[in-house]
Specification:
Layout (H helix, E strand, L loop, with lengths): L22 H4 L2 H21 L2 H21 L5 H20 L7 H19 L4 H9 L10 H30 L3 H10 L2 H26 L1
Helix pairs in contact: 2-3, 2-4, 2-8, 3-4, 5-7, 7-8, 7-9
Length: 218
């Protein structure tokens, strides 16, 4: 087990520092979340106004600009690097196929893989919502011994499965229909807005389970 920081190890505002970053911090904070969507937004807009080649150049350039911006500001670079790699793969596929819709294929496949993973985790009674959350925060997996928490994370994992399945169905239909403009719009609309809904649902389910468990623990 990793030892935590000493009691007097505090942040600048006097509060004890957390040993493990939150999910939001892992993603580079709110700025990191917003910045990761910039290349996709740029690609969608430039592809509509101009053409595929210009959209690919603009998307890659914006990804590089985001990475440089975070370096200059001495912010966490990992989200920007991951985003730039993803944009690079998507741009390569679109360039090789000559089709703008191929730019969205990696994200579509990734959503399908995540949806399948969440579904399987529910079936084997290791709901991924709980595994990921407690794994990142270093809390261990003892929550599975509490039926209320297991049920809460199962419901949360089902919600995440629905979110990813909705992406695959809607964007998959648009991909097959070669509706690249609407596909780009769907990619943006079904991105962080749906993730936000799933996160809120997860927090609600877990808090409700904890409130129900608290009387029996007092």
């Amino acid at each position: 087990m990793i030892a935590g920081p000493p009691p007097d190890h505090q942040a600048g505002d006097g509060r004890p520092q957390r040993e493990f970053p939150t999910m939001l911090e892992q993603m580079g904070g709110v700025q990191g979340v917003v910045a990761s969507t910039i290349p996709v937004v740029v690609f969608v807009v430039v592809n509509v106004v101009f053409a595929l080649q210009a959209a690919l150049i603009a998307a890659l350039a914006s990804g590089v600009a985001v990475a440089v911006w975070r370096i200059v500001r001495r912010q966490q670079l990992q989200p920007a690097v991951s985003g730039l790699f993803a944009v690079g793969v998507a741009a390569f596929l679109a360039y090789r196929t000559g089709e703008a819709r191929a730019f969205y294929l990696p994200g579509l496949l990734f959503s399908g893989a995540l949806g399948l993973a969440f579904l399987v985790s529910v079936l084997v009674r290791w709901p991924l919502a709980g595994v990921v959350w407690h794994g990142i925060n270093g809390d261990g997996q003892s929550w599975r011994q509490d039926p209320r928490m297991l049920r809460a994370y199962t419901l949360a994992s089902i919600l995440w499965t629905v979110v990813f399945a909705a992406r695959v169905v809607v964007q998959g239909l648009l991909y097959n229909a070669d509706q690249e403009t609407w596909l780009g719009i769907a990619r943006l609309a079904m991105g962080y807005p749906l993730v936000g809904v799933a996160l809120l649902g997860t927090v609600w389910a877990v808090r409700r389970a904890r409130r129900a468990a608290s009387p029996s623990t007092t």
